[in-house]
Amino acid sequence: MKNCFKIIIAAGLIFISNPLKAQNYNDALLLSEPGLYTGARALSLGNSYTALSNDFSGVLFNPAGLGFINKLQIAAGFNLNSFDNQTTFFNTTTGAERNSINLNQFGIVYPIPTVKGSWVFAIGYNRVKEFNRTLEFSGFNGGNNSMIQELTGVVNDEIPITNDLGLAFEIIDPQTETYIKDTTLINGMLNQSGRIRKQGSLGNWSFSSSMEIAEGLMLGGTFNILTGTFKSDSDYWEDDTQDNYGGNVELVPGDPTTRDFQSFYINDIIEWDLSGWDAKVGILYNWIDIIKFGATIKFPSFYTVKETYFVDSWSEFGTGASYELDPKIVDKIKYEIKTPYEYSFGAAANFWLATVSADVKLIDYTEMEFTKGFTTEYRIARNREIEDLFTATLNYNVGAEVKVPSLPIWLRIGMMYFQSPFANDPAKFDKKYFTTGAGIELGGLFKIDAAYAFGWWEDFGDNYGVNESRTYQDINVHKVILNISTRL
Question: How many CB atoms lie within 10 A of CB 191?
Answer without folding.
Answer: 17
